[in-house]
Specification:
Helices cover 45% and strands 16% of the residues. The chain has 280 residues and is α+β, with helices and mostly antiparallel strands. Strands 5-4-3-8-7-6 form a 6-stranded antiparallel beta sheet, with helices on both faces. A hairpin with a 2-residue loop joins β3 and β4. The radius of gyration is 21 Å and the shape is globular. About 8% of the residues have low confidence.
């Protein structure tokens, strides 16, 4: 199993056999269930892959016995969690995974609270609005409202980007201590564009500035031609969600930045207050 790329202090768990206590019907909450662990790990490997993977490729990646891997693949195909490419026989994520992901978003209280506010904000400033959540050392996109000026050919919902390379991630890093930031980040910060900040000292300097301003921003650190502003949603501490606004560089000036940042801060306050009321 490949080591985790997030955080130097995060433990890496191997897949364990069922304990004697489990075999006798007892509880062993501190241990993993081998079959469940393998199933979720397999789904995660296929979800990360940009293309379907063959049985041989999966066996090489996972280092599991080929016979047991094949039986697990066939079970997941039969249940609709995986699908098989007819031409190559390679395996990819199936429609059941989409249904589970959709259910997650439909029932998520942050998405529910943020959705109407994001829609109003998009109409007010006509720029693309995103909501994302911290997951390990990545940001996972939960919702988007697209601008008429810069429509995307694909949705970012469900996709993930490194926390250090997005304004959403920087906004969440800025509400954490230096120690918490260093514990969360991977040893090497991946570079997505020539503008991505990969030096830790420079990143910490950015975060100090963002703490003073109350919002974060990045210029072309993950997408060439785009600048993004973001604000954390501190309804819980530390915050794990943030909203952002993406603006094409060629349409951004100081006046437009003010027209974006003010409403973005107001939207973050509204969503945070709504979540706190719902939790009371």
């Amino acid at each position: 199993m490949n080591p985790s790329r997030c955080g130097t202090g995060m433990a890496i768990h191997s897949i364990e056999s069922e304990s004697q206590e489990e075999r006798q019907g007892g509880s062993a909450s501190a241990r993993t269930v081998k079959s469940a662990d393998r199933t979720t790990h397999l789904l995660e490997v296929l979800a990360r892959s940009p293309c379907p993977l063959s049985l041989t490729e999966l066996q090489r990646e996972l280092d599991w016995p080929k016979s047991s891997l094949y039986m697990l693949l066939q079970t997941l195909v039969a249940r609709g969690w995986l699908q098989v490419e007819p031409r190559t026989g390679a395996y990819g994520v199936g429609v059941r995974a989409l249904l589970a992901g959709t259910a997650y978003l439909d029932h998520d209280p942050v998405v529910q609270a943020a959705s109407p506010v994001m829609s109003r904000l998009r109409l007010e400033i006509d720029e693309t609005i995103h909501l994302a959540r911290l997951d390990g050392c990545d940001m996972v996109y939960l919702a988007s409202r697209e601008s008429q000026h810069h429509p995307r050919i694909f949705s970012r919902v469900g996709r993930r980007l490194p926390v250090h390379a997005t304004s959403l991630g920087k906004a969440l890093l800025a509400v954490r201590t230096v120690y918490e930031v260093d514990s969360l980040l991977p040893l090497r910060l991946p570079q997505l564009t020539e503008n991505t900040v990969t030096d830790r000292n420079r990143l910490h300097q950015q975060l100090a500035l963002f703490r003073e301003r109350g919002y974060a921003f990045e210029r072309e650190e993950n997408s060439v031609g785009l600048c993004c502003f973001a604000v954390a949603l501190p309804y819980r501490r530390p915050a794990f969600e943030a909203i952002s606004c993406s603006v094409p560089i060629d349409r951004l000036d100081a006046a437009h930045e003010r027209r974006v940042v003010g409403p973005l801060l107001g939207a973050a306050r509204e969503i945070t207050q709504s979540l706190r009321r719902n939790a009371a």
